[in-house]
Amino acid sequence: MNGTMSKARTDIQAVQVDAVKPVEVAPGVIRRHLPGAGRSDGWLYDLVPGVEWPESDLHPGLARAYYVLFGEITVDDHHLGPGAYLVLAPGDPFRPSTTTGARLLGTSLPG
């Protein structure tokens, strides 16, 4: 330590994700909105088996990243399973499908 006191952090937000209210945003697509900071945001998505995202999800000005927690998704010709990480530039389309069902952690950041 350098002898100076550090200020206590007041910017930490924490939630138990399964306690966040689920919202069905399309048939078979359940979203939980997670805290973010500034223009960043977070979501937890549950996709039921056999679902395809109903329309291309575009977020102008925001880069997005998705981490597959479990299950498998297909995006274009990419088959992504648990532990896969997908990054999209601002405005890139995102329309995953799944035969197994999947849980994704998504974040957005100003691009």
Automatic annotation (TrEMBL):
<dbReference type="InterPro" id="IPR014710">
    <property type="entry name" value="RmlC-like_jellyroll"/>
</dbReference>
<protein>
    <recommendedName>
        <fullName>ChrR-like protein with cupin domain</fullName>
    </recommendedName>
</protein>
<dbReference type="InterPro" id="IPR011051">
    <property type="entry name" value="RmlC_Cupin_sf"/>
</dbReference>
